[in-house]
Amino acid sequence: MAEDKRAAFADEEYWGRPVPGFGDPAARLFIVGLAPAAHGGNRTGRVFTGDRSGDWLFGALHRAGYANQPTSVHADDGLTLNGAYVAAAVRCAPPANKPTVEERDRCLPYLVRELGLLREVRVILCLGQFAWDIVCRQLGFRPKPAFGHGAVAPVAGGPTVMASYHPSQQNTFTGTLTQAMFDEIFASARRFGA
User: Fold this and answer.
1) 120: three-class secondary structure by DSSP
2) What domains are there in the chain, each with its CATH number?
3) How far apart are CA 77 and CA 159, in angstroms?
4) Cα–Cα nearest to 53, from 113, 104, 119, 97
5) Which of 75, 83, 141, 156 is the most buried (most CB within 10 A)?
6) pLDDT tens, residue by residue, 90-108
7) How far apart are the first and last CA of the chain?
8) What is the number of alpha carbons within 13 Å of residue 136 lying toward its C-beta?
9) What is the chain's Cα-based Rg?
10) CA gap 194, 183 in Å, rounded
């Protein structure tokens, strides 16, 4: 759990600080990631900010017209989102990037509340299988649609749920997720009304 600091961060005050979502209150695109990175969002106080996954995400959001700049290094760097909101399923950096069921369930009400406040959402984009599983479970999909990059699950009378591989180094360094693949996800989100 977040109170158990990794040795590499033993002297850092920011370890375990919860990180809220952020973005446009009139967002049509709601992006859900796994959790803030230990030395990224956990350090900066803004999810996906100051880490390589964020570089990929904000670069794609900028190319798609959702962000005013392609990078974000700290919470006061001028980044603004237009039509998009970014949040994490788990609000603190989990050990080994693997949240426990307890962490997942403790953080879920915050994600649900944020989504409930965003009345214009047309597309929920899940970055990675963990986010996909949480969103599909919360929306009551039975059976749960299979996860895969580009998977789409419409909600009757609600938003379309989309899946993408997470822009983690594990996926981007190996070519599992390419910039073209990621850009196509945001182009698809636009086609679904985001």
Assistant:
1) coil
2) 43-191 (3.40.470.10)
3) 31
4) 97
5) 83
6) 877 666 667 778 887 787 8
7) 35
8) 21
9) 16
10) 14
